[in-house]
Amino acid sequence: MPIFHLTTNVKNVPDSFVAKVSKEIARLTNKPEAKVMVVVVPGARMMFGGSDEPVAFVQLNSIGMKEEDHPVISESISNLLKDIGVSQDRYYCQFSAPLPTHVGKLGSTIAELNKPKENVIHF
């Protein structure tokens, strides 16, 4: 369930960038791309360090993400953001590895959905 949420003051973020991010987040988190969600909020009113030059705030949530992977993921995100004109000194990335009980889907939680199904014999 990796969720990549980007808020940026860059107004025009191409669809090709969103697709590239989706593939890269799948690779970085070792999760199928079918489970990756990418949210991009372009054109936000943002300022960083007293400047409104291109800036970004990224949140990456992924069950099971390990702290030791954060530097590699951050480097990759930095490279991705260059594609939309955000330099590596103009963004922050916040990592979160929620518990499966803290993520909802299909009217349940990931923890509940991943529980083994009981074998019930009906006569």
Write up what this structure looks like.
This protein has 123 residues and is α/β, with parallel strands linked by helices. 26% of the residues lie in helices and 22% in strands. The strands form 2 sheets. A 4-stranded mixed sheet has the order 2-1-3-4, with helices on one face. Strand 1, helix 1 and strand 2 (37-41) form a beta-alpha-beta unit. The protein is elongated and about 70 Å long. The relative contact order is 0.20.
Concise overview:
By secondary structure, this protein is an alpha/beta fold.
Unreliable segments (pLDDT under 50, ≥5 consecutive)?
A: none
Helix/strand structural class: alpha/beta
Count the beta strands: 6
Strand order of the largest sheet: 2-1-3-4
The profile of the biggest β sheet is: 4 strands, mixed
Which percent range fits the helix content?
Answer: 25-40%
Work out the helix count.
Answer: 3
Oligomeric state of shown chains: single chain
* Overall pLDDT metric: 94
What shape does the CA trace take?
A: elongated
Beta-strand percentage range: 15-25%
Q: What is the H-and-E element order?
A: EHEEHEEEH
Kindly, what is the distance between the CA atoms of the first and last residues, rounded to a whole number of angstroms? 38 Å
Radius of gyration in whole Å, from Cα? Answer: 17 Å
